[in-house]
Prior knowledge:
disordered C terminus, alpha+beta, 258 residues, six-stranded mixed beta sheet
Amino acid sequence: xxxxxxxxxxxxxxxxxxxxxxxxxxxxxxxxxxxxxxxxxxxxxxxxxxxxxxxxxxxxxxxxxxxxxxxxxxxxxxxxxxxxxxxxxxxxxxxxxxxxxxxxxxxxxxxxxxxxxxxxxxxxxxxxxxxxxxxxxxxxxxxxxxxxxxxxxxxxxxxxxxxxxxxxxxxxxxxxxxxxxxxxxxxxxxxxxxxxxxxxxxxxxxxxxxxxxxxxxxxxxxxxxxxxxxxxxxxxxxxxxxxxxxxxxxxxxxxxxx
Length: 258
C-alpha cells in the first residue's frame, strides 16, 4: 500500500513543481531513523554509510519498511522529518529515504538537508498593525491557499477561525494578511512557524503575507469575515471517557461459562 510520502514522491517525479509539496510532507512525516546503537539518554547516533555522493543516514516512513531493508535486529528511533533535518543540518550528512523498499526510494544530498532545515527555521512576520482598508485576497497562488488550508485544518482546538484578506496599510502599502482568531498566547509562536512553513513550501517569498492574532471579541473580526477567505477549521473532538462495565456486560468479552 502506498503511503502519503510515496504519493507525494510520485507527484514530484511527474511534475517538478510539486517538489516543495513533497518536502513539506517529508517534514511532517514520522520517520524511523536507523541508529548505530541504542539511544543513550538524549543522544542518538545515526547509522551512516558512504557513497561517491557523500555520507547518508537511513530513514523509512514505515517500521515494516525498515525491517524489510535489514534482516537483523537494528536499533532505530522515530522522529519527525523536521527534527531529523535539524539534527543532521550542517553535519554533511544526507538522507537515504526508503532505499530499495518503496516507490519513494531516493537519496537526499546533504545540501538538500541543510536547505530543508533552513526553510523550516524561517520566521513569519507577525504584525499587530490594523490596516486602513480590507479587501478580498487576490493574486495569491493556489499552492499557497492549499498549503494554508492543510496547515490550519490540523489546528483544531488552537485556532477558532482564520481569514485571509488583502490589506492597505498607512502610507499606501498593499499586501495580504492572515488573521487568526482566539489563539492562546502560548501557542502563537508555534502557529506562526506553521504558517511560515506554508509560505516557504508554496514557493511564495516570506514577507508577502503578514500574520495577526485577534481576540474573539475584537471589533475588527466582522470586517475580516465580510471580505476575507475563511478557512474551515474542524472542531476538536475529544474521545468519550471510558465507562466501567459491569462484569459480563462487554459484548466483546462475554462471561466465560465454567
